[in-house]
Amino acid sequence: TGILVPSPSSSTVPPVILTQDELKKIAAYKAVEYVESGMVLGLGTGSTAKHAVDRIGELLRQGKLENIIGIPTSKKTHEQAVSLGIPLSDLDSHPVIDLAIDGADEVDPHMNLVKGRGGSLLREKMVEGACKKFVVIVDETKLVKYVGGSGLAMPVEIIPFCWKFTATRLQNLFEYAGCTAKLRTFGENNEPFVTDNGNYIVDLYFKKDMGDLRAASDAILQLAGVVEHGMFLDMATTVIVAGELGVKVTNK
Ligand code: 5RP
Fold first, then answer.
1. What whole-number distance in Å separates Cα of residue 40 and Cα of residue 112?
2. What single DSSP character describes residue 5?
3. Of 35, 49, 85, 106, which is most buried, counting CB atoms within 10 Å of its CB?
4. Which atom from ligand 1 is nearest to the alpha carbon of 142?
5. Which NCBIfam families does the record associate with it (predicted)?
6. pTM above 0.90, yes or no
7. Helices and strands, number each (H, E), in the chain
8. Digit-coded pLDDT (tens) for 52-74
9. 124 has catalytic annotation
């Protein structure tokens, strides 16, 4: 699927079709304009964040950025950053991060997010919670009226011990919203998907909205067995959306 970019009406140039991945790249490159030499950077995870990490690597190689320290949000991003020669550290050594750049699965008009369909929500929340600025990069397909209400997964990272018990408790918590809880699996044998932290992910699907998001967040986090959930409430400071009509930047 592509997105039609209209050319000026007087132009004879045919309209350009940008793919979703090209839009992700446009948003990512725009976000990297916020990066300055000497910064400690949170490096996000996913196909959009990958473009930002690539771009940071490129600018370092060209000598246009210097003295960057990256804090990766997943093993995959760690590997990518190493391959690009980006110097890395961690939250123990750098508990305050200047800027993080990451994608999202859903973004609502209040800049609340759903993240974690790529499975890295825990490290993302730890790193992005330690940032002075958190820039979210998305293509316009990620915009929703209400996070968790898109009918798509809202991920919750749980410990493997008695996962069915925890999944059932999560589902029961949101019975009023028609919630179904499904263990995330992969492959032909439906092996449980295991996070970088050795945990499982239960994806919650809602028929109706959850109501008060902060109350929903608190209720999930109170369940023993839950490690973290994918709602990122009031964390983003900038959202960059690339779409049909260009790039839109919204600051908190
Ligand atoms: C991974 C994430 C990703 O940021 C989110 O899934 C968006 O991914 P993509 O940029 O590939 O659409 O939260 O845990």
1. 24
2. E
3. 49
4. 12
5. PRK00702.1, rpiA
6. yes
7. 6, 17
8. 999 999 999 999 999 999 999 99
9. yes
